Structure formats: C-alpha cells, structure tokens
Batch of 2 targets.
Target 1
Amino acid sequence: MKRIHLTITAETPLAIGQRKPGASVSEAMDYIPGTVIRGAIAAHILNQTSDSPADGDDFHTLFLNDNAAVFQNAYPAVLKLSSDQYDVSQGEVKVLPATALSSKTNSGFQPKAGVFDALIDSFCAREHGHFYEPNDVNGDRVEPFKGFYSQHQGSYYAHSVNQRLLTRVGINRRRATAQEEILYSIKVLDEFQGKAQDGTPQPTVYKSAILISDDNLATALQTFLEQNSPHFRLGGSTSRGLGKVHIETQIEDIKDIDERSNVIQARIDIFNEKLNERWSLWNVFNDSNSTKGRTFFTLDLQSDAILSEHWQRTTVISEAMLNQFTNIHDPDLQLHMAYSSYDYRSGWNAAWGLQKDVELMTNMGSVYLFSTQQPQAWYEPLAWLESRGVGDRVSEGFGQIRVCDEFHLVFREGAE
Amino acid sequence: MIQLASLNQSFQPSTTLPLTAIIDTALCVGAGGSSGSLSDKPILKRADGKLIIPASQLKGRLRHECEKIARALGWAICESPVAETMCPQRAGLTGNFQHEHYEIGDRNPDGSPRHHCLICQLFGNPSLPARLQFSDLICTEDPDNTPEVLRPGVTINRRRRTAEEKKLYFLETSPANAQLPFTGEITLLPGTPYFAQALILAGLKHIHALGGSKSAGLGWLQWESSVFKHPEINDDIWEFLAAAPSPPSGGEP
C-alpha cells in the first residue's frame, strides 16, 4: 500500500463553495475537500483520453471499486510564526478535537491564553459524580477552539486561510451595461497569506494524501500528477482564472499492519497512563475504581463523516457500529462519551451533470471515548480503520479518523 | 479501457497561448465591493498587491468579440450571458442550429446528438464545460512602483455648464502612460475544437481596451504575443469559418 503526499500551492484564488439547503449564499470552505481533488483528477484523466472506463482498468480501480483509492482532504499548512514570518508545516496537519478549549477573551495557542483538552477531565468528573464546568488557570471562561493545528519545533500553531469576496457582473451585449440578475459575489480563499519580512508574499499551501493499495498504480498516478501538474484547477469558476494550483507529489510506503498496530498500541498506552494519573487526582473527592481493568481509547474524526445506523443517519459511532466497522465481536466494548455535531453537505457531480444528494454528516473534530476489556483484539482493527476511515464515501475523504489523538494529553495546567 | 501507464507515455502538453497587454493609458478595472480606498471605484488587485485584469473580464470580452465575428460570418450563435437564451435551450428550435458542424460528439440521454454553437464549444455554457482556461493578466511591475492614482471627475450640468450637484467622483487608476505590461495565458484543453486558435486570435485583435471608462480614454492597450507573429493556422480552418451553413428559408438565423 502506498501513500502519495500532495503539496498543493494555490496560484490563484480558490472558490471552494458550499451552499447549504435553503440558503442563497455560497460560502467558502477553509480547506479543499478530498472529493474536489478526486473529481479534478478523474476529470483530467477523462479529458486526456477518448476511451471509456471499463471493468478492471486503472480508472475503475482508482475511483469506482469497492476498495477504491482514498483521497484525503487538503488542509492549510502555512504557519504564521510572527506577524511577518511564515513557514510551511513539515509535520502532519491535524484537526483539533471538539473537546479542545481556550479562553473566551484571548483564545489561541501560546503566547495567547493557550489551548487545552477537557476530554479526560470531563470524563473523570462525570464518573465521580461531579458537574464539570472548565475554566482556564487564570479563572477566565473558556469555549471550544476549533480548526487545524500542527506542531513546529515543539510549539503548537493554528492554521487558517484568509478569504475575500470577489464581485463579478455579466454584461448585456446589446446595451453594454450590467446584465440584470447576473451580479454575483464569490467567496474565495486567498492565494497569499501575507508578506514575509523581506516583502515576499507567502503562497497558500495545502497538504493532502492519496492512499492506494496497488503499488504500480500509485506510481503511475504519481507520474500522471507530475506531468499534468500545471493544468490542474480545483473548485469553481476554473475557466475564469480561479482554482489554479501547483501540485507536488511525494510517494511513500505505508507501514505494514503489524507496525501500524504497534503505533496504535503505544498511543493507547500513553493515553491510559495519563487517564489513570488524572483519575487518581479526581479520587480525592471520592475513591472510585470504575476504570480498573478497562482500557480506554478515543476515535477522533479528522474529516467530516457520513454515518448511518439501521438505515438512519446518526452522528454517534455506537458500540455496535464500531464492532461492525472492524468486523470483530466485543460485547465488553462501551461508549462513554461522544462530542459531535452535524451539518449538511451537497455538491456537484460532473460525471452525472447533476447535483449530489444532500447528506447529513457528522462534523470533523468529533470525539468518541470507548473502553474495552480486551485491548489486544483492537490494536490491529483500529490501525486498519485509521488508514481506511469510517462510514460512507470514505474514498472521497469522508470519515478519516485518528485513534487517541495526542492533543487529549494537553491538560488545563499545561495549556499549549 | 483507461490505463494510466499508456496515458503517461502518450502525454501531450496542453497548448498555451501566452499573452501580454501593454496598457498605453491609465487602467481602471473596478473592484466591486472593495473597501479601504478613498476612491469611489477602487482598482482590482491581487492578494499580494499586484494590479490585475481578471480572467473573467478577458474571457467575457473575448467571448463577445468571437460571437461578433462568428455571427458576421453567418454562423448561428446563441445569446449569452443569460442561461435561458444559450445553447441548451436553443437546441429544440428550428433553424440552422441543428447542423453537423455544431455536434460535439456527445449524445443526449435519448440518443440524439448534442448541439452547441461554435462559441459555446469553446467558452462553455451551463450544460457544457469550457474548453478554454483563462488566467488573470497580472502586472509584472513591482507594486511599490504602481502607486495609487486618484482621478477626479465631475459631471457638467448641461444648462448651467457648471458642476452638477453630487456628481463629483474619484476613480482609482494605474499610473498613466506608464506602458505597464500585464501578462497571462489562455490554455486550450485537450479536445478543444481545431478552429479555436484562429477565432481567439481574431477576437483578440478586436480588443483595443479593457476595464472601465474606455470611451473616456482609460484602459487602451496593445497585445504582444509570439502567437500573433507566427500563428500557423491552416487555410482549411479559415475556409471552414467562412463557409457557415446557410439558414433554411423561413427559419430563424
């Protein structure tokens, strides 16, 4: 199995629009969804040939198979080190969990008030029978802090992109004046994020990846992407100059399942170690041992997910659903906490020439805390789930998860 | 059957027409909805401060010129920019529209061939993606050398021959007579009809000014591009464009 890392540099503004049902305003998303990248690559392949896709060919394997390639979302990767210093994150860009909190009045990573995670504390408080209303170490009120983040030289940085509004008008050919009802505004993502000290503008850079199980096909796709890199356009209004990007690729082998399950086990061990430490602190209120013999782990949604249970949409990954996703039977599996919210998403399918159905989806950053008494059975299935995803349309980047995100270990006293 | 390895071997780079517009006068491309300027009509800039002529304006203007040329040659052309009067709606009408030259090689769900006028085949419409990709024309001059120029204007009352009340306005323009070069390109995607380059070059020759207040002397330009010097367009293409199908008697043109 191979992973093609994509570094996408915007050369013109990107119009990544989303229109919610019933709304008349087209908003811009602050990242490039995997489904947009997938659609652009598929359209480009079809434009290059007069052949039609057939069963078993590369197009079918990449886009149409049950085990099709996974096109992950592209998240902004520009770090703002200071007012005139920028860099591109070398590490992984991740989504902050829904349990991340920061000061209401001075929110942000250090040197601002700092960001911390409340999952473990809120779980301990609830299990000890206490009401948990967090504040920061200065006593200020806190509220959820959402977005993308990465670590750079030991410090945490939030990632975001600037947006602006472009206004355009159609011209009536007879009167040579503005055409009625063709005045419109497009919200776009800026192609530059500011100027460095020497005056050079910092281009907006996004990072994404494509996961492919067929090694030869991965190499062929990388060659195709490199050859056609100057001609890719992402988002809307592409023939009118928007969405021009430059794509750099880097291919790597994905570790085998044993190695990946070892990584998952190490993460789960550290998570449980910290949870037990915290649990012992909360035990000053009343001595409780309800965590004894149980191993806890979290699922953190790194992208929006489309989840359904009993043919109905849901925003919670239940024990039965997780058993089904991993194809194992664990009657001891228990869901303790779920932090999730929902939104609606539609889109345009160029192949159909029609709008996609409106889907109810669970927002990225959602957190689910599970525990089990048989952790050994879970390491490998969770490693597989982390590389594949949960729910529907995983090949379009939906349902990407991370097991036991390290940010859960950032507590209130050590807010980053 | 689509195999990426064979696609990679037969890779042919897309045709790109480089373009440079030298602005002879001052340029005034208004940025609708902008704020932070003293003028009533601020000039459009990129996020890094460079002046631009947006691709949407170049595309719209070139489409208009190509429509004029094709119509003058006798081709039936739909009426942009309103979707209701463009090709997909015209397809069922009588006239010389459903002609073999207008077939795009694709078929409707009922099996009948799809027809789009010559212009829509290049520039697209709500049901057909464009085969041409335009880029913004970006001023290559450093933004520090293109300071904000405010040009005041006032309307004259025709009876009193004095300034009309509430008609004093300020336009933001590029520096006048600075011969600022704006560069960009037009990319012809694979599958672009073979007459595209001829029509584009002919259309560009008809564009003498861009932006606002053209009749007041702003935005006048001349094109510089290697494709104008050696266009390498076959005579067959010119003959094809000149041989528009004649409309049937009684049908709409």
Target 2
Amino acid sequence: MVSGVIKVDALLEKMTLELQNYLKARAIDNPMIIGIRTGGVWIAEALQESLELDSPMGVLDIAFYRDDFTRMGLHPKVQPSILPTATEGRHIILVDDVLMSGRTVRAAMNEIFDYGRPASITLAALIDLNRRELPVQADVVGEVMLLAPDERVKLTGPAPLSIEISKRAD
Amino acid sequence: MFEQQDPNQIQLNSEGQLKHFLTTEGLSRELLSEILDTADSFVDMSAQQVKKVPLLRGKTVVNLFFEASTRTASTFELAAKRLSADVLNLNISTSSTAKGETLRDTLMTMEAMHSDMFVVRHSDSGAQHYIAQNVTPDVAVINAGDGRHAHPTQAMLDMLTIRQHKGDFSPLKVAIVGDILHSRVARSQIHALRTLGAAEVRVIAPHTLLPRHIEALGVQVYTDMKQGLKDVDVVMMLRLQRERMLSALLPSEAEFYKLYGLSEDKLQHAHPDAIVMHPGPINRGVEIESAVADGPRSLILNQVTNGIAVRMAVMSMSMSGQTTEAARRAEQHASRTE
C-alpha cells in the first residue's frame, strides 16, 4: 500500500547545486558520472543533463561484485556494465538512488577499481536512509529519510521520476 | 555407458535454476538465453584492466580430465581463475575396466579436499550424470565433454558466437558438417539450436558418419555438401576425429576432404553473409581449407574467446543454483529444529 509519493525534481535541483559547489570547491573539472543500475542510472542521467557534462556517462551493474553471492546466489538478470572511457586518473561522480547499508556502494567502488585507479570518487545519492552497515558516506544527498521498520522506499521511473514509500506487506 | 535419467531432475534445483550443467537437452529457451546473457556480461568484462570478478572467491574448482584436452581444459581453468576461484587441474588416465570404482574413489578424495565444483571430461557417455548423482549436495558438476553424448559448454559458446553475429535465431538456417556420428558437440549444438528457435538445422555427412535416427532430433539430413550448404547462414564444421577412423568408416582423408571439406568453392553455395565456425583443433586440408579457416567469414578465434565467457557464466550460475538450494535446505532444517 502506497503511503506517500514524493516528486524528485526539487531534490535533483538541490543535488545539482550542491554538486556544482562541491566540484568547484575541489577544482574538479570534467568529471565522469557513473550510475548504478537501475535507479542510480536514472538519477545519473538527470544529473548528467543538469550539470551539462561533456564526458559520456557510465553504467555499473554490480551483480558480480555483491558480497551476498554465497548466501543469495547470482541475481538472475545481469546486464553488462558500460564505462565508455577509461577511469584511470578520472574524477568520478558515483550515483545511486537509495543509500542504505553502504554495501552497494562498496561493491560499485570495487568494480570501478577493476577498470583502473580513479583520481577521486564523489558519492551522490537521492535518498539516504541512514541505516549504514559499512563506513560509507555520501558527499551529496537529495534527502535524508528516516523510515519506520515496516516502511520501504522505491524510486519509480524513468519518466516521471518519483519516490514511493510503502508499508511492507508482511 | 552409465545409466541416465531425465537430466533436468539432476541439473536443475527446485526453483528451476542451474545446479549442474550436464547437457543442453531439455533446458528451456529462457535458461539457455540467461546463460548467453550472463556470458555477454563476462565478454564485456574483458574491457576491464583487472579481468577478474569475485564471484567464486574462496571456492575450489577441480578440473577432472579423464580424457586429454588442451583447449577446453585451459579455457575452463582461465574461466575459474577469472571468477577468483582456486583451481586444481587433474589429468587422470583411466582404465576402462575399473572405471566405476575408480571414479567413485576419485570423487570421494576430491570431496574430502572440500572442493566446490568439478569440471569433468570423460570418455564414457553419462559419466558426469553419474558423478552429479553421487556428489555431496553442495558440489556443482560441469560437463566438459562425455563420450559421444554431450559437450554443452562448447555448444553454448557456439550459440553465443552466432547470436553476436546474427542476432535473432529464428530466421537462421544452420548446417553442421562432418563426423556427426562421433560428435558430442553436434548433439549439444542441435539441442541448443532447436530450443533457441533456429528455423532450420541441417546435418551434412557421409552415411557412415551419420547416427541412425538422427532425423528424430528435428534436423534435415544431407549427404551432398553443395545441396546441404545451399543458402545456409551458419556453417558449423566438426573435427574429423582421426583416432576414431580406424574402423574404416572412410576411404581416406583425401576423399573426405574432396567431398565434405569446406573450401571457398563449396562455401559459395551458402548465403553470401554466412559465417563459418569450427570447435577446433582444426585439421587443415581435411575438414576445412586454410583459406576458409583464416578467411573473413571464419569466427574460430572468436569462439575461443567466447568459450571463456560462457564457461564463466555456467560456473557462476551453477554455483548460484547450489547456493540458493543450500539456503533453502538450511531454512527447512531450521524450521524442523525450531
């Protein structure tokens, strides 16, 4: 049952502004945006456009890098990761829709390093659920949400993008 | 020959996931496509600086080769290493008399070393079925070729190569040429092509190298090369197994080449965009002309590259099937003991 729908346009505007300031403060020029499938890619596409970046965007599928393979097995639909240019020495903005435990970001960073050693990685997340299990912190966040234990959040898209908060069925 | 039961009772878990990979026969189109999709992801992985993923980190893969092989063994080894597994290669020459006992003893020894996966090549058809039925539940068994029966990873790397170059299987006419009788590759190819929906699968061979009732597999049979190759989109050559020619099934290699060897002339009968494949190793001037093997239509080296990706896909998917099966068993055990 959907108990709330949030439009993401305002959050994306906020993230764009914060990212611009962040990159400017660190003198980062021409970063490469990499989105984590699936929701992270939608947010990354929106940020790629609003930041007017020249460099083509990358897409990561972290299925081969998850730390729960020995418990859960391989996720059935693995799509290829696509990094259109070399990551070696590049400044990267890693984008995901929801930051929760930090495990997805850890897996994504492991995969990025298998393509080369980037100069830096900036982490941007639309939603931070503040339920970290690993010491991972986003540099730019659309909104921090504190959900009840029985609540879930889901990004729907790609157009229009919206956030659904629902009660767990069980 | 070992006794065989319905392969999918053994090679799939209760959720229909791959647990062992023994044969392409009877597997669904969805599962074969999933193998190809996963393999595609591993092909793209070659763009990485570090060509390794951590999926089988901490796992031990044993290559049990009871029959000599260089290409298959090395691509399986590389595939396992690219999945971060520890790999043990054992080449075991087997005596045909004591094989049942020997096989069981070998298995128990390997299990005692806490192996997680056996990649097995054996000269007896069905040996891998026997192994899969007798290993402990958490061990995955991958068939790297058994007797005249099946060579499913070779067939799937061929399917991946075809899909990469032709896309959809449904309009394709495919010819498999050569020693069909002794070929485990041909059987696995036929099952895979039929399941993936190829429009027409042909076999081309002399009568002496055709198994009886081959038509029952849903193929068109040709004994004339020119007729058989007419308008085909894919030509899949088979290796003429010289070691199996002792029983005078052919007058001579030269005669075979004249009638069934793939030359530029004969290839003219195929579709102008036809691709040429061969599982290797090639007998140049016996089943294929050098100019064709090294020519622009030949995908023989692509097949080798794809072999690593397909073997990575099959290994990770079967280990995944074992993992989810083990989780289900643990859940059942927990609910019983609560």
